[in-house]
């Protein structure tokens, strides 16, 4: 009868336990550093005091009422929503066509186009803002909403291309080949076969692009003409004069919208994927 094998020690070595504890502590500190300002802004948005600082003197919704009674802030919201919806729609249409061409076709300069489309991901927004501004000056074009729309579309385009590309790469071309064999042309195949299969990536790319556009401030400051304000630039302008409780309320609304858009996108993608 063989002797029983010694019980393996399930506890990690003392050095390993210390390392894991230090890693957990650092992770908690990073999360606190990231999310504490968000929590503070949301809490102070409901503070009844005009000081806009701790300690809170009571709970109140008055700053949200004053926020939406401010015509300039409402106009900034309208501008941001129109800009985000339009630029993300343009980026989605162009991005889907570019992704299809890059994945399904071989042509000269393909690698160069792929690199060119990825440049906004690699370059800082300040560089992009200055570059487009100098290009417009060379063309003698004034800053306008159309320029702002063009810039936001360029910034959002790479994200849509990458998301749709990833979906197309994982999609077997045999589905499209079967449709062609059955007599469908390329347009019919795209709308009846390819488009439904890549819809989750398209929805995700659209909402991701809309979130990027709605939150953008660095490049927007370079491209907008005087008199046009988005929500981020409006907050920036308000902070230059004073810190009022309305800024906390506006920041809270921005945070909620920024969080809700990706959540709604993820829910729609999962629901659509289950339905398919």
Structure at a glance:
This protein has helices at 14-45, 62-69, 71-104, 110-122, 125-138, 145-169, 174-181, 186-215, 218-223, 231-241, 245-275. With 276 residues, it is mainly α.
Features:
single chain, 0% strand, 276 residues, globular, mainly alpha
Structural summary, described in words:
With 276 residues, this protein is an all-alpha fold. It is 77% helix and 0% strand. The protein has eleven helices and no strands. The chain has helices at residues 14-45, 62-69, 71-104, 110-122, 125-138, 145-169, 174-181, 186-215, 218-223, 231-241, 245-275. Helix 2 packs across helix 11 (245-275) and helix 8 packs antiparallel against helix 11 (245-275). The mean pLDDT is 82.
Percent of sequence in beta strands:
under 5%
Number of strands: 0
Helix content: over 70%
- Helix count equals 11
What value does the Rg take, in angstroms?
25 Å
- Show unreliable segments: none
Secondary-structure element string: HHHHHHHHHHH
State the major sheet: none
Helix and strand content put the structural class at mainly alpha
């Amino acid at each position: 009868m063989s002797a029983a094998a010694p019980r393996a020690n399930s506890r990690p070595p003392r050095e390993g336990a210390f390392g894991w504890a230090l890693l957990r502590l650092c992770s908690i500190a990073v999360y606190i550093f990231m999310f504490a300002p968000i929590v503070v802004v949301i809490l102070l948005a409901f503070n009844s005091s005009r000081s806009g600082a701790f300690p809170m003197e009571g709970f109140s919704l008055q700053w949200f009422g004053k926020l939406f009674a401010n015509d300039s802030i409402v106009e900034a919201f309208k501008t941001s929503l129109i800009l985000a919806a339009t630029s993300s729609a343009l980026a989605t249409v162009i991005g889907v066509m570019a992704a299809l061409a890059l994945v399904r076709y071989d042509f000269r300069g393909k690698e160069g186009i792929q690199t060119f489309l990825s440049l906004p991901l690699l370059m800082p927004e300040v560089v992009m803002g200055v570059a487009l501004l100098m290009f417009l000056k060379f063309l003698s074009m004034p800053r306008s909403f159309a320029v702002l729309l063009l810039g936001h579309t360029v910034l959002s385009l790479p994200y849509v291309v990458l998301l749709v590309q990833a979906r197309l790469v994982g999609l077997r071309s045999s589905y499209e080949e079967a449709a062609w064999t059955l007599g469908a042309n390329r347009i019919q195949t795209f709308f009846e076969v390819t488009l439904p299969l890549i819809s989750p990536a398209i929805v995700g790319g659209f909402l991701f692009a809309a979130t990027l556009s709605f939150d953008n401030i660095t490049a927007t400051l370079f491209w907008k003409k005087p008199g046009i304000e988005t929500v981020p630039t409006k907050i920036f302008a308000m902070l230059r004069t004073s810190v009022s409780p309305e800024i906390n309320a506006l920041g809270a609304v921005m945070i909620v919208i920024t969080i809700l858009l990706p959540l709604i996108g993820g829910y729609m993608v999962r629901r659509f994927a289950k339905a398919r």
